[in-house]
Design brief:
Blueprint: E1 3-12, E2 17-19, H1 20-23, H2 31-38, E3 42-44, H3 53-67, E4 77-81, H4 92-99, E5 106-110, H5 116-129, E6 136-142, H6 155-158, E7 164-173, E8 179-187, E9 195-196, H7 227-231, E10 238-239, H8 241-262, E11 272-275, H9 280-290, H10 301-304, H11 311-321, E12 330-337, E13 341-348
Parallel strand pairs: 4-5, 4-6, 11-12
Antiparallel strand pairs: 1-7, 2-3, 6-7, 8-13, 9-10, 12-13
The structure holds oxa(dethia)-CoA.
Residues 29, 33, 37-38, 114, 155-156, 159, 241-242, 244-245, 248, 278-279, 282, 306, 308, 337 line the site of oxa(dethia)-CoA (UT7).
Length: 349
């Protein structure tokens, strides 16, 4: 049975840089607070109308496909991870298929927020191992800047997120010392509402959603999005940051250790850990807990903020472009986020 290897990788971030100080015109915050609590100095925001989650993905995908030495017509499956799709439906996968003039291949959207790319990679890995596909395009892309509350009310969320895309091409390999060794997926829906965007949705406040002020009761008709919801700012993501932080610092190390021990490795064997870029303090906590050196962990949240499903492929691509990953290196990808869902992938580059 073959393993999957990353045959090509690409990233795209919008040109527009938004510094912490740029946010001061919209909300009561400070460069000091943001840097101290998150490590973020700046993030990229997509062009309001000319760039979408899909167009950024296409830019990243073009690079990944070229680096894999193939053309878009060679791709036989698309897996697209995002929480900020161009449309509520259909998903972004089909928009990539159309934009890149690919064959009538399968396109699957993965909705797993911060762990979305690692989940998507795991799905792709299974299709390669089974022999079903030979060239799978796996994408993580987000345009957060379009849907955040940039008033002081939403500052605990809006200062964190940024836009961008990353993509890889998965291909089969029979090399002993290469490819994805294993992937590990987890979820715990107990606290689904503490990091969530409730609307548009069909919940009708059935779950007694935390912080949910009101609901328009009508027998029939539009309930996805109402004036009341907008007036109550229920069209924005909600996050209980400290609660997410507490769970993240437990589950990140757990899922990394799970990947390492499954394959007979220990933290010191790792050449590089690419943690989802949620918060520099979380990454530093994980580094300390696992006894890793600065050289063993790659962080770039300082420049891009948290790009959720795009953060792992962007960081992986940047680390590779900087020469921090060489053939045969042991690399671990790990992510934790809304759901909660968390995941890891261990690979030999
Ligand atoms: O990728 C998805 C997964 N997400 C995460 O992993 C996020 C995990 N959580 C976090 O990263 C952190 O909890 C945050 C960065 C979101 C927040 O940092 P914190 O140290 O947990 O701060 P906090 O939420 O406890 O808020 C502390 C104070 C509050 O004021 P009071 O009540 O102490 O007076 C907030 O109102 O900071 C205030 N605050 C802000 N002040 C300035 C919240 N946001 C801001 C802001 N600027 N942007």
């Amino acid at each position: 049975m073959p393993r999957s290897k990353i045959a090509g990788i690409g990233m795209y971030v919008p040109e527009k840089i938004i510094t912490n100080n740029d946010l001061l015109q919209y909300m009561d915050t400070s460069d000091e607070w943001i840097q101290e609590r998150t490590g973020i100095k700046e993030r990229r925001f997509a062009h309001r109308t000319n760039e979408t989650t899909t167009t950024m993905a296409v830019e990243a995908a073009k690079i990944a496909i070229e680096r894999a030495g193939i053309t878009p017509q060679d791709i036989d499956f698309i897996i697209f991870a995002t929480l900020s799709p161009d449309y509520y439906f259909p998903g972004c996968g089909v928009l990539v298929q159309r934009a890149m003039q690919m064959k009538e291949i399968g396109a699957l959207d993965v909705r797993n927020q911060c762990s979305g790319f690692v989940y998507a990679l795991s799905v792709g890995d299974q299709f390669i191992r089974s022999g079903m596909y030979k060239n799978i395009l796996v994408i993580g892309s987000e345009k957060h800047s379009f849907g955040l509350d940039f008033s002081t009310r939403g500052r605990n969320v809006s200062v964190i997120f940024g836009d961008g895309a990353g993509a890889v091409v998965l291909q089969p390999t029979h090399e002993e010392n290469q490819g994805i060794l294993s992937t590990h997926l987890h979820s715990d829906g107990e606290a689904a509402e503490i990091l969530a965007m409730y609307n548009p949705g069909t919940h009708a406040n059935h779950w007694g959603t935390h912080n949910y002020a009101s609901f328009d009761d009508a027998e029939i008709g539009n309930m996805f999005m109402s004036h009341t919801m907008i007036d109550n700012a229920q069209n924005f993501p909600f996050m209980d940051g400290p609660a997410v932080f507490k769970k993240a610092v437990v589950k990140f190390p757990e899922v990394i250790i799970e990947a390492l021990t499954t394959n007979g490795y220990k933290p010191s064997d790792l050449q590089l850990l690419i943690p989802h870029q949620a918060n520099l303090r979380i990454a530093q906590f994980v580094q300390q807990k696992l006894g890793l050196t600065d050289e063993q962990v790659y962080n770039n949240i300082q420049h891009y903020g948290n790009t959720t499903a795009a953060s792992v492929p962007i960081a992986l691509c940047e680390a590779w472009e900087k020469g921090k990953i060489k053939n045969g290196d042991l690399v671990c990808l790990a992510a934790f986020g809304s759901g909660f869902t968390w995941a890891s992938a261990l690979l030999k580059w």
